[in-house]
Amino acid sequence: TTGPDTPVWFDVDPTGVEAGGALPFRLLFRGAPLAGASVTLAGAGGAAVTSVRTDESGRASVTVPAAGPW
What we know:
Blueprint: E1 8-10, E2 22-29, E3 32-33, E4 38-42, E5 48-53, E6 59-63
């Protein structure tokens, strides 16, 4: 989960990403890039869909598999 110490900064508007599109983001911890963090995209019911790890600059990207809330 994220909180005030671990904000997620999206590189694109997440509401505009269509199914099959990339959702790139940057994860910070207390203002610094969070390298090597595991990030899981979960469906509305909480089931994990895909997981990625952030790179040395705290960046990663997930592919949105379908329309709807995540």
